[in-house]
Amino acid sequence: MPSPRLTWTLPKGGGSQEAYEVELTRAGRADRTGRVAGRDQVLVAWPGAPLASRERVTARVRVWTADSDAPSDWSGPSVVEAGLLDASDWHAVPVGAAWDEDPEAGRRPARVRKDFRLDGPVTRARLYITAHGLYEAEINGRRVGDETLAPGWTVYPHRLRYRTHDVTGHLAEGANTIGAWLGDGWYRGKYGFDGGTRNIYGTDQSLIAQLEVTYEDGTTVSVATDGTWSAAPGPILTSGLYEGETFDARLHDPGWATPAGQGAGDWTPVRVNSRDLGTLVAPTGPPVRCTEEIAPVAVTRTGDDRHLIDFGQNLVGRLRVTLDGPAGTAVTLRHAEVLEDGELATRPLREAYATDTLTLSGRGPLTWEPRFTLHGFRYAEVSGWAPDLTADMATARVYHTDMRRTGWFECSDPLVNRLHENVVWSMRGNFVDIPTDCPQRDERLGWTGDIQVFAPTAGFLYDCVGMLDSWLTDVGLEQLPDGTIPWYVPVIPGEPMWTPIHPGAAWGDVATLTPWALHQRFGDLDLLRRHYPMAKKWVDLVEGLAGPTRLWDTGFQLGDWLDPAAPPDDPAAGSTDRYLVATAYFAHSARHLALAAAALGIDADAERYRALADEVAEAFRRRYVLPSGRITSDSPTAYALALAFGLLATRQRQRAGDRLAELVVEDDARIATGFVGTPLICDALTDTGHLDVAYRLLLQTECPSWLYTVTMGATTIWERWDSLRPDGSLNPGGMTSFNHYALGAVADWLHRVVGGITATAPGYRKITFRPRPGGGITSARTRHESPYGTVSISWEQTATGLTADIVVPEGCEATAELPGCTPVALGPGEHVLDTAELAAQVA
């Protein structure tokens, strides 16, 4: 962006900020803002002229705080460099293979390359690059960057991301070569339900690259994709996100992208394809990268040429193997999340074959992993390999969007800790450029309902705002003219259930609730402003569908999806009236649209949508709340919705909370909620005086429950409460994923109620520390890296009460509400509180 925003944290012990000064150095000249009065330090507006394309600027800041008349030292310098900000900056064109292909079949990926000369020493070089499909670039045999599945998945007709790489160190004076591997990816690969759809966005597989080089004397030269490039089939024979990858090492020349090597095969002129260069955009979040490597915990020979590998953790990534065998030896790698009767359980994958095949070259040891696919797996089978397979010959490489970790939680209960780790692993596995539902079967789509319920948890655990802001932009682009939000974004064919698109509660409400959740976590008012038109169109649509009754009681709805009472083949057939769910969400979205309007200073909208929310809540009570205070759907989800969304009159709240607790206790604190009710039920119990019941629900280990999955060996969150049944058999439903984060939204309650950290102003500028121990949990530690700095609390029960070690970031204020004590105001710094001492002070 031409005007990036600035964020800084304050010096430790300095107190609150009273003023700041920013210095920008551009083209060797430093300009300062002078002293600017104010407390702003997060996402501060760019204080200078907008950046020009390719411009590089150094920024630093100093502050004045309440405890000092003198300014702080200058911060260390931060450098920002603009990419190509205008379509006119581009002269590259998409280029790919020119040979004939069958667009309805799997196609062998191409590689493209270009030889060029540099006539002097290089001082600066930038590669701006993207593709129709996927790419990995090399210059002079050295890989450019470390991201995978680039450029990611966006609504390609409107937005195609490019990345900027500093490749100065890749180049040499004289002969040079640039090349790229190409893959189908989401652009033209087979993707989606019931056999998938090919060529969703186009039939070409093309690279768009622009290398700009600056010599020591200041002159420049550009090498861009055009008709002078060449293409040849590569050693990847087949590749698909679902299918896996087939690689023949006999066809690979490692020096194919160097001046000395052409690689196997005939290089022929490329075909020039087309692209509206005005749709190329810079990314707002990090790319997908390998973030961890996991060694096997067990390798078992299961046949003459078969080995089963257990990595001990359900993950998303790829297998890297190191093998040495005769030329032509074909080794097959298959993947699955669980075992069934000692073999890979592949039925849950449906038509995602998750199979990679490597043919050895016979030229010595080869370390290999596929390039353009990902698998969800804990177990891998290696077949076609007769010698012993040892643990050092195979590694699982974990891939996901490389977000910065910002949130941690642990407590005295090891099962709850494992549950929380499972939530983290499921988020990692499903935040792969977009927020997907599951990472393993023939789906992996950006379901709007899943992230709607999980966004508060996600925003605590990781700095995911850039990634989700980008995805929300695509939600707005895919929104129908009437305001309908698709079930999943980007939209692909999904007949007959998901196409044509119908408006659905909880899923469509991502338009209002997720921008608000991100604003609360990260303090980004501009994000709220950008997505406000989308949110308003959604609420206006539902208002029209409900009509004067204010009841949304028509149309297709998923209701409390995957309620455990629903049969395996009909996950929408839960125990809660789906129109009750729809009307409740209508009120909740209208209320949050009013909150967003107020935050943005759109006062007329704030008043209008507050009134609308009140009207819908009143209609909800008239239709669904009985005179006795019970709800017509006498189910935990119905009460959780009514309580958490503030839909009941004051006199009704306690009755509803008591009835909710009764229902939970009558069912021995087993889960009876699905996607809609599960994120809300613990808060609904807590807020109506039934904290003990909420803990019983959390700590239940019988099926269905959160901890049942842990006792069954889960290392991620399951899609169904009984994806694996107590007898060890798999749920027979067609949807049985073992890595689905939605039901892990309870982690938000763990962070706030068990851990005790709640943001009470956007970005954690104000914080409430309110741990509420229970369930035999005697201690907890919770930490969040907020935009202002570290927020943390570590509490422990003692013989006389509770002690808490609390950290408040500089520039923030907090309140501690410890059990049995009056609230205590806290300023920045570390505070050690003891409830016995606080009680004695009051006495």
Plain-language structure description:
With 843 residues, the protein is α+β, with helices and mostly antiparallel strands. It is built from 15 helices and 43 strands. The strands form ten sheets. Strands 11, 18, 19, 23, 24, 25, 26, 29, 30, 31 and 32 form an eleven-stranded mixed beta sheet that branches. A hairpin with a 2-residue loop joins strand 1 and strand 2. Helix 6 crosses helix 7 (578-600), helix 7 runs antiparallel to helix 8 (603-624) and helix 11 (678-687) runs antiparallel to helix 12 (691-699). The radius of gyration is 28 Å and the shape is globular. It starts with 16 loop residues before the first strand and ends with a helix. The mean pLDDT is 96.
Which secondary structure elements does this structure contain, and how are they paired or packed?
Elements: E1 17-26, E2 29-32, E3 36-37, E4 56-65, E5 78-81, E6 95-96, E7 110-118, E8 122-132, E9 134-139, E10 142-143, E11 147-148, E12 160-161, E13 163-166, E14 174-183, H1 185-188, E15 206-215, E16 220-224, E17 230-233, E18 236-240, E19 244-248, E20 268-269, E21 271-272, E22 280-281, E23 288-294, E24 298-303, E25 306-323, E26 330-336, E27 339-340, E28 343-344, E29 355-359, E30 366-368, E31 375-383, E32 394-401, E33 407-411, H2 414-430, E34 431-432, E35 434-435, H3 448-461, H4 465-478, H5 510-522, H6 525-546, H7 578-600, H8 603-624, H9 636-644, H10 650-666, H11 678-687, H12 691-699, H13 706-711, H14 747-755, E36 757-759, E37 766-769, E38 779-786, E39 789-798, E40 801-808, E41 813-816, E42 824-826, E43 829-834, H15 835-842
Parallel strand pairs: 12-22, 19-29, 37-41
Antiparallel strand pairs: 1-2, 1-3, 1-4, 4-5, 6-21, 7-14, 7-17, 8-13, 8-15, 9-10, 9-14, 11-23, 15-16, 17-20, 18-19, 23-32, 24-25, 25-30, 25-31, 25-32, 26-29, 26-31, 27-28, 33-38, 34-35, 36-37, 38-39, 39-40, 40-43, 41-42
Helix pairs in contact: 3-5, 4-5, 4-6, 5-6, 6-7, 7-8, 9-10, 9-11, 11-12
